[in-house]
Design goal:
[4Fe-4S] cluster binds at residues 18, 22, 25. One of its GO terms (molecular function) is oxidoreductase activity. It catalyses: [PQQ precursor protein] + S-adenosyl-L-methionine = E-Y cross-linked-[PQQ precursor protein] + 5'-deoxyadenosine + L-methionine + H(+). The chain is α/β, with parallel strands linked by helices. It has a domain at 9-231: Aldolase class I (TIM Barrel, Alpha-Beta Barrel), CATH 3.20.20. It has 13 helices and 9 strands. It has helices at 40-53, 71-80, 96-105, 119-126, 131-143, 163-173, 187-191, 193-196, 200-217, 277-281, 284-287, 313-320, 336-348; strands at residues 9-13, 57-61, 84-89, 109-114, 148-155, 177-182, 222-226, 246-249, 255-256. It has a 9-stranded mixed β-sheet. Strand 8 and strand 9 (255-256) form a beta hairpin. Helix 2 (71-80) runs parallel beside helix 3. It binds iron/sulfur cluster and FE2/S2 (inorganic) cluster. Iron/sulfur cluster (SF4) binds at residues 234-235, 298-299, 302, 304-305, 308, 310-311, 326-327, 330, 332.
Length: 371
């Protein structure tokens, strides 16, 4: 067996602790407690191994990565190893002093999440009163610094009506880039799917709004737009293809190709307290869906097999009970009818109103054992 090309990006899920409780959180339903998180020395070792492997980008995420007291040490270490460092944060605990320390440590980029364009919706979706105002303050501080800023909006049935205001907010706040991502149905979002799926009218309006905004703002604001899987013809290349260029480490030190792979049965994920990042990248669970050799029909003989790599294994598992099946989002999948039915049911059901009775992500921070 030939060696796989090295990963380009390491996603470090430093913690599952978070002051917010978004109902579409991609963290697992069983959240890791602070006492089970990797310690500082292990993260620093993993950063050394990542740099030696050829990783260029480090994405620090969670939960809320700012809940880690050793965040600056981790950033400084990665900076010294020449990695480009992106912090993915809700921003509600960021103030001028903290930002100055992050900058001094060598942080390159912040991806700041917003739950809505205004406080009422934002606080309701994030489950934190006053959260939206704190995010606005954080965005202004970052925009005034030399750290690059991307604003991230997860959109769904309960906030799509305000998409134009979200774009206006990104403009006003001076972001260089904006990401508008329809909800992906993993983790908590799967549990709340019925309340989050957009209507057909909302989706048409959102597509038109994004097209117009891109034309109007081309020179000032880059807008990345992730369309909702269930309404698409073909799936996305999830994570750029299974174990092709990205490796994720969860708070407890399990190495996986994506944030939802822990749910795939029969996979013995490498534990990085006991093994190296390089060994994990070459391990059997990473090989399982790498490339095209594992593919069933219709993927096996499809001309798109090296474009979308068969879509998302975790979505195939969630919808069909089998991770090895073609992603049912694909029109060629024998299971596509179930996705089409879900999209049609949601698309025609405009009855849901805000506030929505969804189930919030549970488990708030556990400060007593925080690292
Ligand atoms: Fe992609 Fe497989 Fe569908 Fe072809 S059949 S478009 S490879 S998911
Ligand atoms: Fe796991 Fe798509 S989220 S492969």
């Amino acid at each position: 067996m030939s060696s796989p090309a090295p990963p380009l990006a390491l996603i470090a899920e430093l913690t599952h602790r978070c002051p917010l409780a978004c109902p579409y959180c991609s963290n697992p339903l069983e959240l890791a407690s602070a006492s089970t998180e990797l310690d500082t020395a292990t993260w620093l070792r993993l950063i050394d191994e990542a740099a030696a492997l050829g990783v260029l980008h480090l994405h620090l995420t969670g939960g809320e990565p700012m809940a880690r007291r050793d965040l600056n040490d981790i950033i400084a270490h990665a900076h010294a190893r020449g990695l480009y460092i992106n912090l993915i944060t809700a921003g509600v605990t960021l103030d001028a002093g903290r930002l100055a320390l992050l900058r001094e440590a060598g942080l390159d980029h912040i991806q700041l999440s917003f739950q809505d364009a205004e406080a009422e919706g934002g606080d309701h979706i994030g489950g934190l009163r006053g959260g939206h105002a704190r995010k606005l303050a954080a965005a202004r501080l970052i925009a005034d610094s030399d750290i690059a800023l991307t604003l991230n909006f997860v959109v769904h049935r309960a906030n799509l009506e305000r998409l134009e205001q979200m774009i206006a907010l990104a403009e006003q706040l001076g972001a260089q880039r904006m990401e508008i991502a329809h909800t992906q149905y993993h983790g908590w979002a799967m549990r709340n799917r019925a309340a989050l799926l957009p209507t057909a009218a909302q989706l048409d309006a959102a597509n038109a709004t994004v097209t117009q905004a891109r034309a109007r703002l081309a020179a000032r604001l880059r807008i990345d737009y992730v369309v909702p899987d269930y309404f698409a013809e073909y799936p996305k290349a999830c994570m750029g293809g299974w174990a092709r260029n990205t490796l994720l480490v969860d708070p407890t030190g399990r190495a996986m190709p994506c944030h939802a792979a822990h749910g795939i049965p029969g996979m013995d994920w490498p534990r990085l307290r006991e093994t190296s990042l390089g060994a994990a990248w070459r391990s059997a669970p990473f090989e399982r869906f790498r490339g095209t050799g594992w593919m069933p029909e219709p993927c096996r003989s499809c001309e798109r097999r090296e474009i979308d790599w068969g879509g998302c294994r975790c979505q195939a598992l969630a919808l069909t009970g089998h991770a090895e099946r073609t992603d049912p989002v694909c029109v060629k999948s024998p299971d596509h009818a179930m996705v089409a039915a879900l999209a049609a049911a949601a698309g025609n059901d405009a009855s849901a109103t805000v506030p929505v009775a969804w189930q919030y992500r549970s488990a708030k921070p556990d400060p007593t054992t925080a690292r």
